[in-house]
Amino acid sequence: MEWDVLIRNGLVIDGTGSEPYTADVAIRNDTIDVIERLPAGATDNARIVIDASGMAIAPGFIDVHGHTDYELLINPTAESKVMQGITTEISGNCGFSAAPALCDMLRCDQDNWCARYGVDVRWRTLAEFLDLVEMRGIGINYATLVGHGVLRVNVMNYEARLPSDEELKQMVNLLVEALEHGAIGMSSGLIYPPGCYAQTDELIALCRTLRRYDGIYTTHIRDERAELIPALREAIEISRESGVPLEISHHKAVGRASWGKVRETLPIIERANFWGLDVTCDQYPYIATSTSLKTLIP
Q1: CA–CA distances in Å: residue 69 to residues 63, 193, 195
Q2: What confidence tens digit (pLDDT) does each residue in 106-126 have?
Q3: One domain, residues 175 and 274
Q4: Distances 146 to 19, 99, 291 between C-alpha atoms, Å
Q5: 130, pLDDT greater than 70
Q6: Of the candidates 62, 52, 63, the residue with the CA atom closest to the CA atom of residue 23
Q7: Domain that residue 243 falls in
């Protein structure tokens, strides 16, 4: 049997939670064919042999909190992701997604972005955006959430008020369309306008729609500083009342005064799971942070 690639002597970390073990990995026709210790003569059966001694072999990583969105239209090969071992990205986080883009404000943003990067493409629905991404021949697997902030802007622009019953119905309809076009859930960014203008009941109503499509709710919660605990409890309430899984995005306690609060938040998440909810969180592995000026002004 001839293999295209044979990776020898690597420490296999397979993602199942089992103990790492040393093995060889043989690949044929873009498919893993063998994972085991092979005899020395096996190298004769491979076109490419890679010695992974002292290195780890793992499946591709899933980046659950990506913000690539538009950028896949500029750099579809996504080398910066692939070189980190990322083979799947979940985008549309923190309340922002590339679609739907139906209102004049979002269409203007799209025009400005396209002009800045010299990309002559336009889209309105998520289906149209995903078609464009697929036509580019991207280098990673890609899935997207639909941003709650984008739903709100399409219906209400950036108005700092509650939606009317009719406006909420329009947001639900846009969410349904995006889910039917392939969105895997909804994200919110509750420190950013317009997400910061939404009250809990609005988010529960939208998340109840997610439940019909087995969608997930991910959230950049309302505060990660002094009001971290109430903000986390609000997210869990939304999950409990709507019946959808919850992902807390980039969970952290920001600012010296909040240091140590994760000793309180993590048990809150654990208790929510104990009582039957499906609550998880992700975290980035560094102490820096960044965001936009609109979180402070006005």
Answers
A1: 13, 19, 19
A2: 888 888 888 888 888 889 999
A3: yes
A4: 37, 7, 20
A5: yes
A6: 52
A7: 61-295
